[in-house]
Amino acid sequence: MAERIAIIIGAGPAGLTAAFELAEKSDIKPLIFEVADDVGGLARTFKCRGNYIDLGGHRFFSKSDRVMDWWRAVLPLQRHVDSGESRIEITYQKKTRWIDLPADGPNPDETDDVMLVRARVSRILFGGRFFDYPLSLSFRTLANLGLRATMRIGFSYMRSHLFPVRPENTLEDFFINRFGHELYNTFFKDYTEKVWGVPCHEISAEWGAQRIKGLSVVSVVVHALKALLPKKGSITQKETETSLIEQFLYPKFGPGHMWERVRRLVEARGGEVHLKRRVVGLKHDGERVLAALVEDGHGATEEVAGDYFFSTMPVRELIAGFDPVAPAEVREVSDGLIYRDFMTVGLLLDRLKLGGGGGGRGLHERVPDNWIYIQEPHVRVGRLQIFNNWSPYMVADPDKVWIGLEYFVNEGDDLWSMDDEAMIAFAAEELERIDVIDRAAVLDAVVIRQLKAYPAYFGTYDRFDTVRDYTDRFANLFLVGRNGMHRYNNQDHSMLAAMVAVENVLAGVEDKNNVWEVNAETEYQEEK
Question: What domains appear along the chain, each with residue ranges and CATH number?
Answer without folding.
Answer: 5-43+257-336+458-516 (3.50.50.60), 137-225 (no CATH), 339-455 (3.90.660.10)
